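TL;DR need structure tokens for one chain.
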Amino acid sequence: MSDLLINVISAVIGAVVGGAIAWIIAAINFEKYKDLANSQSASERRHSARLAVEYLIAKIEDSELFRVDAHYEIWDKGFRSLNDTRELSRDAKCKLSIIEATAVLHRIERFDSELRPLIKLRDSFERFMAERGADGVARLSQASDWPDLDAAADELRRLQTFVNRELNPLKDSIRKELTNN
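>> reply
TL;DR here they are.
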């Protein structure tokens, strides 16, 4: 079997296994949070959910991914940031569903669904790099040859527009639904 075919198969298997692992982790986290929720007061659960959402917002505000012009994006770093953001999103969704904070949960779920097209392009990027056998600095120089580069730039701009439009309403929902009064 050629090295190219082995790299492609490895990338596909890695993407499938990575997705399965992410779902298993999400299920384990949900069960863990349910157990934790049973041992916490309603006020503690609400505070924990608020912190989880605030961590997510801080990540969004601090990440260059949500601010940088798409043509200057360093996709390796951007996709790592995207993965971190999805982890924080999962954590927030688990905690919000436990306390039934539906307005905030709905906004986080919409945000999560807006990430999906870029996640699919992340998988395309990883396959492309695996086919090239690129690592380190070679990945940076070869990223400009990635066939889905323009599609990724368009998706990133769309995501940035969504985040710019929805971040303040999310903050307002947090104040309304998760502030202890």
